[in-house]
Amino acid sequence: MASCWPSLIHRLAFPLIRPAIATIAVYNALNVWNSFLFPLILTQSAANRVLPLSLWAFQGEFTINTPAILAAVVLSALPLVFVYIVGRRQLVAGVTAGFSK
Question: Model's pTM, two decimal places?
Fold first, then answer.
């Protein structure tokens, strides 16, 4: 009887918590993506920069290569868009879980 508990928990609990995990993952990814000031203060070297800081450092000192910066922004946003596309059904179910009777 004790050996069937993990299987029972996975079959019952995982389908119920999957929308909540997807919602938390998407919101956490957005929060990490939008953080700029905190990593700017804490990171000392260019090797430890997060993606928005690297994009900020990508521009030149006196000139800005706008097409290259826009291409870098689009390429850096693709993983977050992919995560949203894959988990949008769970995201909507997690956000609207408490609104139905």
Answer: 0.52
